[in-house]
Amino acid sequence: MAKKVVILGAGYAGLYCALELNKLATSQDAEIILVNKHDYHQLITQLHEPAVGAKNPEDITVSLNAVLGAKPIKFVKDIVVSINKEAKTVELGNTTLSYDYLVVALGSETEFFGIPGLKEYSFTMKSVNQATRIREHIEKCFENYAKEKRDSMLTFVVGGAGFSGVELVGELADKLPELTAKYNVPKDKVKIYSVEAAPSIMPGFDPELVEFAKKSLEDRGVKFSIGTPVVQVEPGKVHLKSGDVIETDTMIWTGGVRGVQQVIDAGFETEPRGRAKVDEHMRALGHHDVWIIGDACFVLSPEGRPYPPTGQISTQMGENAAVNIYSTIKHMKLEKFEPHLYGAVASLGRKEAVANLSPKFKPKGWVAYRIKDASKMRYLSSIGALFKK
Ligand SMILES: Cc1cc2nc3c(=O)[nH]c(=O)nc-3n(C[C@H](O)[C@H](O)[C@H](O)COP(=O)(O)OP(=O)(O)OC[C@H]3O[C@@H](n4cnc5c(N)ncnc54)[C@H](O)[C@@H]3O)c2cc1C
């Protein structure tokens, strides 16, 4: 009888897992059920674009019905509430599902590091809906400035200068001047701050590329505050450890990720930030019927460093989990998760990017921007969504 495989989350990891398992297994081997709270797949790696209005939300979503087509994958649009690993069931908003094998690919939540006021008074950017909220708020700031004339309405702070923070700052630097023209606001009133606790922006990136990125953004007016942790946020104010206070109506926090609550509540073994510990085959520790993949898990490289939470690694985890579920069904040897790291490309707005591809190949500027575009196209093609919406 076919094994019931329930996959929670249709992001990079979960969707890839479902598609790969469908390629390997026949319907006699596995009944595949994919659960997601929306009926679309989000290109989270592009969220900074709709967050400033550079693209529409529809440009970075893909209909799951279009991707799944006539494939024998059952899609359930619902919210995952909890997992009962002993009963082998998942509680959804509207029903309960049982499983033989479970894949948890619910992504991550935002880490606020216990900083007072940060959660309450900042925007986060982890979904298309959150990006839309940021865009609407930015427009409102410009719109209302004509009436209220408070400088804090045109001061934008991005907390965290990792990958997503820098990409967002780049988009803001390119888009806000357009809004000054639209709302007839003096350009010099607009301020963009990038605040980072670590001693450098974009940790892990090649120093030459980091320098290029910093200069490119500074040339477009971005002010960096590096090595200065945010210590408190209150309405209208961001307090830094240096003692500086930035008066702003807009704090966008991109400074950290943590695991998802459903994994913690289910009692799976996690590291201190709630990401699940998994074995070399991506199974939850001590649970050979549960795979936890993507940002929801924590995996160390052979050098002992955690792999970064990226779309690239998440899809590879999805592929590995699919192979190992199939091998489990067929009583075959499992495969170790050994990712191929192809480097990373961070955009710096509408025209430039930096690409950390290899020690010898580190393109920057327009060429890197085209590489970023090409990698998005390659990804869409790999999930069969290049011409589907
Ligand atoms: C702004 C930004 C830029 C980034 N840029 C890059 C980049 O350039 N390159 C790169 O490699 N990585 C980048 N990343 C990181 C990358 O997006 C993540 O590592 C990746 O999305 C993780 O994939 P995932 O499948 O684990 O989770 P997600 O892609 O987050 O997917 C999780 C899925 O689960 C669903 N879900 C969540 N909770 C529930 C629930 N309770 N019930 C039902 N469904 C639920 C969500 O709707 C979603 O579909 C970026 C991240 C951000 C935020």
TrEMBL record:
Superkingdom of the organism of origin: Bacteria
Protein name: NADH dehydrogenase FAD-containing subunit
Residue ranges occupied by any FAD/NAD(P)-binding domain in the UniProt entry: 3-306
Gene3D superfamilies, A to Z: 3.50.50.100
Cofactor annotation: FAD
Keyword Flavoprotein among record annotations: yes
GO MF, any single term: NAD(P)H dehydrogenase (quinone) activity
Originating organism: Tumebacillus permanentifrigoris
Cross-referenced Pfam families: Pyr_redox_2 (PF07992)
Single Gene Ontology BP annotation: aerobic electron transport chain
Key words of the record: FAD, Flavoprotein, Oxidoreductase
